[in-house]
């Protein structure tokens, strides 16, 4: 019997409703390359939720493609990206942004987050023109790579600074669902429209087979966007498969419900861990739980469950990371918590 | 009622067996990024069909990504690609290859094909080193962009020249299924293994939702291939969705059956057209039919069918292109042919 | 004794006046990176000659750098260059433009020149958006790579088309001196300011050690230009050495006098050739002479002179190319002509 | 009267012997693009001094070009550079290395230097393949950007680690002359041949008009090097001007004498400063002096001398940087020291 996995939020396929719709629409003949009626309708629903009738929306197949395409569209060759040191583009995308020619200026992170102070320091240290690349775009992830959230106040402060200093603001939303559905969250999709130049809404990690939706709020950035999608290999012949999935996610609130479920399972897991007397290494804000467990217990748990051992801590213990998803069941969590007692 | 479409071979979703397997495997927890068990099994089946136990195989989401990643993997910055003037990378990929830094040296095509003579001329004209980029990789498509086939003898001649002149040979197989399943074809998958350095097997246009399989026969080219997939945005978190589809295609002969069906529908359409007294503009070798019809007839047909009007010809006529697919039914073809009689 | 060379116009160092000035100014302490007083003064003189008080002017070390930097500054990743098939960037710069990510759309040349018709055809054939790179900049060389000239009417027609179609016009002036000093020329520097978005004035081939001056007429293109110079390695620490040379060239009419001398030597050579009964393969418009000589004579001449044998022609003859420069003397030409008689 | 400048080591033109040779050789007709006899002879002399008869040597116009071309030649797209956080390519070249597609992995510096420990940490943190770019080349500068030296033992340790871990070692020698001529130095040119894969010898900052010599010790890296020079705009038509200068530098020991002079002037300045009772902020190892002076004194000195105020320090003082060069005279230093007394 396979181990139950808390490794990540992309271990399963898609939510069954998504598959149903793919089957249901399968034989209708549609225009290729994203000009199908499902993509059109999905964008209408999404614009409603964004409260932004004019937002330009594009669907692409992966998060790295969303980042490559968005940044390729925004920057000239001498312009650089500002990112937290934990930024996905910096540490987990194999130099994808440098491969399209752009320097990433690294800023120390605080709980996975960029701060106005960090951005200002980066601007100050990178002002020896023209011997330095010109900072032009601020990249941040919400939820962050370590599962934390930006508050509306934090995002507003970053956005304000960007506008004062002529910087574009771009948000990587690989786990935007988890962020917007978190208990502590006070950010909305319309906030993101208002505060950023462009951002993307991750589908893959919320319950789609694949697919991320790029939303462009700054009209000047929208004009030739589709060229970049095609040039970087992101234009699917059967764009319908992204359209159908996003349509199912956003014609109702399925997207948010699935994200909320994942967060709730993380809360349940957190409660189980603290209830059993173990400490968390970080507050559980979204769908990632970081807990400190004795190594002996970890070894025992690994007979039944898959998860990452994050780092050793003194006293023969370690931090483990447990990720929940739309597909995580209460039963899985309960089984895990039950084993904590020995 | 929507028009019946002969526009392309990617108007529908996927063959129902593919969808069934996606549904059936949906909830099993799998390793991400292509390390799932379905991808592993799919590659085993494919290696059997290739008769190449050691072939390195990678699945990616689109044909342009397959081309970008393969060429990025093979070339140093000063090395160039040789392509026919009709090559997809040259005329339909928005400068994707140049965007990763490589010149494409253009060779006149004959029926959409490269010839040894054309390649030799290109080598001769591009030998003024170091003032010219160094030809290093020959790119060709089979079936070609105009629906024609390379014979085994033609491919062998190109391959031999490449090896004599230190050139890599790379085959774009967006419609490889159509080629290998054509009546006139004498090329096999093991031939491609033997004759090329790398090639890819198109899934999208044969009946998958998406997915292309890159096969690397030259071991020296395989070592770091996965870095390029990730760097160019081609590594899907849920790589399983490509694995499941290719597994279904190649555990049996589904891939070839679907391609054969498309070719047969094209033959049926051809026979219907010639039977009704109309001329073809080119022999129907795969799943594309080029026919010459009176403009009045074209206008009438367009009330019920979608297809491209390719070019005007004298006598108030035009060439039309009709593409069939795995999903084209005999009924659709019959309905079209019936309308030819007026 | 070394052979007298008609191979090219960069076989010698610099005109003695240039060297004198380098020596004379050598020990003055100057700001680096082009902010020296010689560069400033050189630009003042040049702006006078351009009749363009606001032109942004930058000096770089080589023609390929001038092309790389100018094009990198002008284009976004999905935008392409239109060039004649004889364009230097296309056939003699080792894929430098593709290496910075841009496709070059090739147009058939007429006497080395682009025509409005050729450009229009290229636009027409490259309009299948977003599957094709977007034509955005027209590149042409004056004098052309085969030594011919654009007339003012021809340049005006190209410029007009560019403005109508939203294309930038960029002129490679590696041999602009030869062009502007040709007997048949009717183009002026102010014409180039008026008709192009940017162009460069070649120094190397007219009599400097090295150095090309990029002139930007379109203000929108000037803002961040210096970043590109630095990023591509074109910003010399001792920018003064370019400044001093251009100052010497343009504080008087030395630049034009040297170019005129080279053209006159070519005319003298032409006259000598036709006077001796030999035919030219092309009219001698600038400082390149193409003549048809018997192979036996060529072999004899090669005992004393260096030049390129361009191509064989029937009747045991060949076209030879003879290039003159600021340093070519009447004596050299006379010695060559004398040998024509046997 | 202009201020006497200690701003940098490239405020003047070239050493008079260099100019003499440029004048003397000016009219000889030479092959272009570096195939001239002066370049050939310069390379012979240099190979003698390197004690490396087979070293491949190339001359280019600027340090940034030397870095761009060398790294473009060495790396595939997914491969990254390791650099100290003070590395010139990282902080003063406008993203030039990223612009050709490569990530730079940053390592904390110690006195401007990379250590084996730092490199090992970088390897450890960048091993999550294929989600991270693959470290492949170690870049360091000697002298460093802050004027310090690598000892032979330090370079040997870095070299050994590189070979154990499959990394190339590349040394930026913009100020290699200053390093090799320093009192404390124990590294030789043959050491660099033995310990590195490639390195370059800076000419500009030692007394040439311009020019850097790239030395390739690893034969596998030499084969197609000249393509990269041309592709990046670094191939001068009149390559002779680099050849003549390097010939003059290396046919005798002029290169080392000029560097030694600059270092001696820095020592003289240091002694003057400490003799007058002021503290140095760092030991003076090469031709850069960092001293702590009262702000009032700084203000007074600025009436006669140009230099950079580096950073404020408590007590109404600041660190100033004073750079000497081949052209700095004892009189200039004496005049400066004299003013220290008030």
TrEMBL record, chains A, B, C, D:
<dbReference type="Pfam" id="PF01212">
    <property type="entry name" value="Beta_elim_lyase"/>
</dbReference>
<dbReference type="GO" id="GO:0006520">
    <property type="term" value="P:amino acid metabolic process"/>
</dbReference>
<comment type="similarity">
    <text>Belongs to the threonine aldolase family.</text>
</comment>
<dbReference type="InterPro" id="IPR001597">
    <property type="entry name" value="ArAA_b-elim_lyase/Thr_aldolase"/>
</dbReference>
<dbReference type="InterPro" id="IPR015421">
    <property type="entry name" value="PyrdxlP-dep_Trfase_major"/>
</dbReference>
<dbReference type="InterPro" id="IPR015422">
    <property type="entry name" value="PyrdxlP-dep_Trfase_small"/>
</dbReference>
<dbReference type="GO" id="GO:0016829">
    <property type="term" value="F:lyase activity"/>
</dbReference>
<feature type="domain" description="Aromatic amino acid beta-eliminating lyase/threonine aldolase">
    <location>
        <begin position="24"/>
        <end position="293"/>
    </location>
</feature>
<dbReference type="InterPro" id="IPR015424">
    <property type="entry name" value="PyrdxlP-dep_Trfase"/>
</dbReference>
<protein>
    <recommendedName>
        <fullName>Aromatic amino acid beta-eliminating lyase/threonine aldolase domain-containing protein</fullName>
    </recommendedName>
</protein>
<keyword id="KW-0663">Pyridoxal phosphate</keyword>
